[in-house]
Amino acid sequence: MASSFVKFKLTGLDEIRATLRQLPEETQKKVMAVAVRRAAKPMIAAAKSYASRSVRTGALRASIDVVVKKSRSGDSYAIVGPARGYYSRGKKLGKNADRRGANQPANYAHLVEFGHHSTASTGSNLASAKGTSRRKGTFNATTFVRPKPFMRPAVLTTQEAVAAGLAEGVSAGIQQALKRIVKNPAARG
Question: What is the C-alpha separation between 41 and 147, in angstroms, rounded?
């Protein structure tokens, strides 16, 4: 399965880190997790809008979400993309739901994003259907399904919004933490 990770680093975080270091460690982690989740919202919206170009069942668009994780060093990061799970008619199915005819977009999202070669529609293999040889590496252009990128354009178009959302989220989280600490000094640690 093809995977693509896009990583970008924000500049000007030294001031934010210095302010965060003044807070208790557990509060720092909570503030960053909330800020990262908030910062990912514009990217989710953009990815969903780009994924709507490839609608067949609505499952891919509905599955795009964020998962916030923490690295071993304690830094929070967000993973934006199709969630694992089954979808039918654009809605996520529960654990005990009937999954017949349901889609699991995480299994095919990379094919939509990057395109793929498909076999002939007659059910025969590509070599016999189109007169080309797989050994030679020649494929007929009509068998390639064009990519319909949704994640890459979302990342490229929302970098500034993500940076602004992260700064705004951290600032709001610090303010809330400071209010809690002033209100109840025992809640400091």
Answer: 24
73 vs 111, residue with greater confidence: 111
For the record, the structure tokens of 33 come out as 């997790």
Task: Answer whether 169's CB lies under 8 Å from 34's CB.
Answer: yes
Are 65 and 43 within 8 A, CB to CB? Answer: no
Average pLDDT, the chain: 77
| The two three-digit tokens of residue 138, written as one number | 């020649």
The pLDDT, as a whole number, for residue 128 is 44
Look at residue 1 in the predicted model and tell me its pLDDT.
40
Q: Give the separation between CA 170 and CA 30, rounded to whole angstroms.
A: 10
Q: Domain-by-domain residue ranges, the chain? A: 23-184
Which residues on neighbouring strands pair with residue 65, listed in sequence order? 81
Instruction: Give the C-alpha separation, 69 to 142, whole Å.
Output: 41
Distance from C-alpha of 50 to C-alpha of 147, rounded to nearest angstrom: 12
Question: What is the reported pLDDT for 5?
Answer: 56
